[in-house]
Amino acid sequence: MMRTIKIFLASSDELRQERIAFGNLVRQLDNIYMKRGIHIHLDVWEELDAAFHFRKRKQDEYDEKVRQSDIFVAMFYTRAGQYTLEELDVAIGENSRRDMPTILIYCRDLQPGDVETAELTEFKQRLEHELEHFSGRYATTDKMHLDFVMWLQRTESAGQDALKVENDNVTLDGVPIARMSQLPFAADNEDYREMKERIASLTSEVEQLQQAVEQMPTMTALRDMLQQKLNELNALKEKLESYQSSLLDTARRIAAMLLEKVSGTLQRAMDAFEAGNLAGANALLDEIAREADGHMERLEQDQELVHQDIDAFQLQAKTVLADINTPISDRIASVTTIYAKADDWARRSAYDKEKYAQLLFDYANFLNDYAHYEEAKQIYLRLIPLSEEIYGPESEDTAAAYNNIGGVYDSQGDYPQALEYYFKALAVKERVLGADHPSTATSYNNIGAVYDNQGDYPQALDYYFKALAVKERVLGTDHPSTATSYNNIGAVYDNQGDYPQALDYYFKALAIDERVLGTDHPDTAIDYNNIGGVYDSQGDYPQALEYYSKALAVKERVLGTDHPSTATSYNNIGLVYSSQGDYPQAFEYYQKALDIRERVLGPDHPKTLIVKENIEAVEAKMG
Question: CATH assignment of 352-463, given 3.30.450.40, 1.25.40.10, 3.60.15.10, 3.40.190.10?
Answer without folding.
Answer: 1.25.40.10
